Amino acid sequence: MNTHVPKIGIVSLGCPKALVDSERIITSLRAEGYELSPEYAGADAVIVNTCGFLDSAKAESLDAIGEAMRENGRVIVTGCMGVDEAAIRANHPGVLAVTGPHQYEQVVEAVHAHAPPPPEPFTQLVPEAGLKLTPRHYAYLKISEGCNHSCSFCIIPSMRGKLASRPAAKVLYEAERLVQAGVQELLVISQDTSAYGVDIRHQATPWHGEPVKAHIFDLAEALGRLGVWVRLHYVYPYPHVDRLIPLMADEKILPYIDIPFQHASPTVLKAMRRPAHQERTLDRIADWRRQAPDLTIRSTFIVGFPGETEEDFRYLLDWLEEAELDRVGCFKFEPVAGAAANDLPGAVPDEIKEERWHRFMTAQAAVSERRMKRKIGWEIDVLIDEADEDGAIGRSKSDAPEIDGCVFLNGETGLQPGDMVRAEVVEADHYDLWARLA
C-alpha cells in the first residue's frame, strides 16, 4: 500500500483577494490529506497563484513561476494571469497546468492529476475556519467576486468576471467561525465592496433565524455584533456609503474606509471612466469627519494617466491638501494589455510620470505627518502583530496590515501576537506611531 503523503507548496502573489483564493485552495487540499510544504525541496508540486493586473505584476508572476520551475519543476499556475495561458506557456512551457482566477476546483483537479491524494483523507487535520496564510489574529473576508465597472485602466472584469456576491448568511457564518478560531480583526474585501449584493438584488438570507440583506450596510451592521475589529476595503463612493459612517462613529465597525479615488481632476476622471464629482466628495469627507472625528480615510491614486496635464496634476495636489486623507498610495500609470486607456491620446513621458510621483508623495507626506502628529498624547487600542525581547509592534484602528503604518512599543515586553492593549502615543512621523502601555 502506498503510504506516501504528498506535499504541496504554494506561492501567493497579488492582492488580498488572491490570498483568500490561495487559502481556499490549501484548505481543500489539506482536507484531502495533503501536507503543505514551506519549501520547494520535497514538494510534489508547487502552486503559483499569479497577479496579472499590471505589466509589472505579470513580470513578477513570470519570475515567480520561473523560480518555482528551477527549484522544483512541477508547477501548477492559477490566478489572474492564468487567463493568458499562451504567455505563461511561451515563457515556461513545462508548467503542469494553467487555470484562471478563483477556479478552485480546477486547481485541485490539477493537483490530483499530478500528485494523487493519499488513499484516506484526514479531515480532522483542517480547522473548522479553514487554513489561513495570515497570522491567526486577523483574516480577510471576501464578500464577492468580479466587478461591474469599466474603468479604462483596468482589466479586472475581463479576468474575474462581473460582480458575483456571496449570500450574507454565508459570509456571516464564515466570519463567526473565524472569530471562534481566535481572529480579532476581519478585513472585508472585494473588487467593489460598496456594490455588494447588487447582482442578487440584495436578497436576504437567514443568519441565526434573522434575515440579513446582501447589502454592505446590513452586512457591516451584522459583522459589528461579533465583537472584533471590522475593517472595510475597496469601497466605491456611492451615496449609500454615507450610511456606514454612523456605524463607525458608534464603534460598531472600525472608523476606517478605503476608497480608491484614483484622481481628482474631472478631466482625468472622465478619461478613467470614474465619477467626476470630487468637489462634492470633499463636502462628503468633511461631513463624515464631523460624524466620526476619528475616521481614517485611505486611498490610492494614479499619476501620469494619458492626457493628464500639469494643470490636472496641480488640481490633484490642491485636492489632496484640502481632503487631508490619512493614508495614501500612488502608482505611475502603466499600460495594461487589453485596457481601453492604452488607446487614449496624450501619453505622458516616463520622466514626467516619475517627477509627478515624487511631487505627489512629498505633498502627501506633509499631509499625513500633520494628521499623525495630532495623535501624540492620545490613548489608542493596539493589536499586537509581532513581539520579542526588545518590545512589540502592532497596529491601531487606523492601520491595515501590510499597507499602512505600525505602532512601535519599544521596551514593552511580555506581549504576544494577538494581544489587544491600550497605549499612549508619544511620537509620530508621517507613517508610524511610537507608544507606551497606558
Automatic annotation (TrEMBL):
Its cofactor is [4Fe-4S] cluster. Binds 2 [4Fe-4S] clusters. One cluster is coordinated with 3 cysteines and an exchangeable S-adenosyl-L-methionine. Residues 373-438 form the TRAM domain. [4Fe-4S] cluster 1 binds at C15, C51, C80. It is found in: Cytoplasm. Its main location: cytoplasm. GO terms for biological process: tRNA modification. It catalyses: L-aspartate(89)-[ribosomal protein uS12]-hydrogen + (sulfur carrier)-SH + AH2 + 2 S-adenosyl-L-methionine = 3-methylsulfanyl-L-aspartate(89)-[ribosomal protein uS12]-hydrogen + (sulfur carrier)-H + 5'-deoxyadenosine + L-methionine + A + S-adenosyl-L-homocysteine + 2 H(+). Belongs to the methylthiotransferase family. RimO subfamily. Catalyzes the methylthiolation of an aspartic acid residue of ribosomal protein uS12. This is Ribosomal protein uS12 methylthiotransferase RimO. It comes from Minwuia thermotolerans.
